[in-house]
Specification:
By secondary structure, the chain is α+β, with helices and mostly antiparallel strands. The chain has four domains: 54 residues; 79 residues, conserved putative lor/sdh protein from methanococcus maripaludis s2 fold (Beta Barrel); 78 residues, Efflux pump adaptor protein, beta barrel domain (Elongation Factor Tu (Ef-tu), domain 3), CATH 2.40.30.170; 132 residues. The chain is built from six helices and 23 strands. The strands form five sheets. Strands 1, 17, 18, 19, 22 and 23 form a six-stranded mixed beta sheet that branches. Helix 4 packs antiparallel against helix 5. The longest helix has 35 residues. The radius of gyration is 53 Å and the shape is rod-shaped. Keywords: Membrane, Transmembrane, Transmembrane helix.
Length: 402
């Protein structure tokens, strides 16, 4: 009992300060809890009112909301008939090049009558070859023809005289037959001599180098004083009729779309002029190494079209009807090409498309659009799918010239 009283007295003294005030631990704990509760209630009240008022604060006037939305330019592409073009590069050449060499025996060249760039006619002499020996041979054969004709005339005269005497009985029929045979042999010798003379004259004419057809002389590889023969090779190259062509190298896929007769435009390197022509032949084979083929474009003669030169070509590959968009309207990422279409709620919607061709006129859409959609013409890269916008219709553009 005394022990308990002593303990209680000691506890009271510990909870009481020197000035007699009580320092109760329980009271301090209670006060702390009350303060925390008050702070929590105040915070809840403050944030709760702020959250409740937020919708009213975020709801701006109708005019202010419209002004905050981005404006975008839209186009309605429709469906246009566009001529698809294929581009390629290649070299210029004569459409029909005629190599001219030695036809006859050859000999010493005495004169060259044409230069590269000269226009010549069919059969015109390009170069002459010395024929002094051949001329003497021709004279000898001509003399033999005259001798044979004289012999044939004597044989004919004797036959006529014998026919007059046979009626009188002075000449037998056997003599007439012999003289007839002699006359026929003499006439045959005349024919042989004439054939030999004609052959020699023909050989002499072949000594001259002549143009096989009318055209433009491209190259010359012979000079006066040069000895030429059958192994001399090509002496002249002639473009028949002066016709030129471009041999455009095209990929296997592009070549499959090109047909003979389609129009083409050719621009030689170093020249800004455009020369119009048409494809006259499409290569039936593909080079297995380069996977390319040749489209041959016929061109009219012009001094700027020099065989061996380089040129670029645009070839028509048929017409197609499809939507045509400005090139700026088509975007691309790792998923492919796409555009932004504005729906009925004026929200941007991504639309995947397939581009058939990109040209100076724009991007031709092969699939993905019907043509009546409102498509963002530019600045589509700054939009997000589902974003609200203010569409502005683009000004009408002048009709394209076909």
């Amino acid at each position: 009992m005394n022990y308990e009283s002593t303990s209680i007295a000691g506890d009271r003294q510990m909870l009481t300060g020197p000035d007699g005030t009580k320092r109760s631990r329980h009271r301090a704990v209670i006060v702390g809890i009350v303060v925390i509760l008050l702070v929590a209630i105040g915070a809840f009240w403050a944030f709760g009112r702020k959250g409740g008022d937020a919708p009213a604060a975020k709801a701006p006037p109708a005019g202010a909301a419209a002004g905050a939305l981005p404006k975008v330019t839209v186009v309605v592409p429709g469906r246009d008939t566009v001529t698809r073009t294929v581009t390629g590069t290649g070299s210029l050449a004569a459409r029909r090049e005629m190599p001219v060499g030695v036809v006859g025996e050859g000999g010493l060249v005495t004169q060259v009558l044409v230069e590269p760039g000269s226009w010549v006619g069919a059969g015109q002499v390009l170069a002459t070859v010395d024929r002094s020996v051949q001329a003497q041979t021709a004279e000898s054969l001509a003399a033999q023809v005259r001798v044979a004709r004289a012999d044939a005339q004597i044989a004919q005269t004797e036959l006529d005289r014998s026919k007059q005497l046979v009626e009188r009985g002075f000449v037998s029929q056997a003599d007439i037959d012999r003289k007839t045979a002699t006359r026929d042999a003499a006439n045959a010798r005349v024919s042989v001599a004439q054939a030999q003379l004609a052959e020699t004259q023909a050989r002499n004419r072949r000594l001259d180098i002549r143009a096989p057809a009318a055209g433009l002389v491209l190259t010359r590889a012979v000079e006066p004083g040069q000895v030429i023969g059958g192994g001399s090779g090509v002496l002249f190259r002639i473009a028949m009729g002066g016709q030129m062509e471009m041999r455009a190298q095209l990929s296997e896929a592009d070549l499959a779309t090109v047909r003979a007769g389609v129009p083409a435009e050719v621009v030689p390197v170093g020249d800004t002029r455009v020369f119009k022509g048409q494809v006259w032949q499409v290569s039936p084979i593909i080079d297995p190494q380069t996977r390319q083929g040749i489209a041959r474009i016929a061109l009219n003669y012009d001094p700027a079209l020099r065989p061996g030169g380089f040129a670029s070509a645009r070839i028509g590959a048929g017409a197609s009807t499809a939507p045509l968009l400005p090139e700026s309207a088509v975007l691309s990422d790792d998923k492919g090409s796409y555009v932004y279409v504005i729906d009925a709620q004026d929200k941007a919607v991504r639309r995947d498309v397939k581009v058939a061709e990109v040209s100076d006129e724009g991007a031709l859409i092969a699939s993905g659009l019907m043509g009546d959609e409102r498509v963002v013409a530019s600045a589509g890269a700054f939009l997000n799918p589902g974003q609200q916008v203010v569409p502005v219709r683009a000004a009408a553009t002048p009709a394209r010239k076909e």
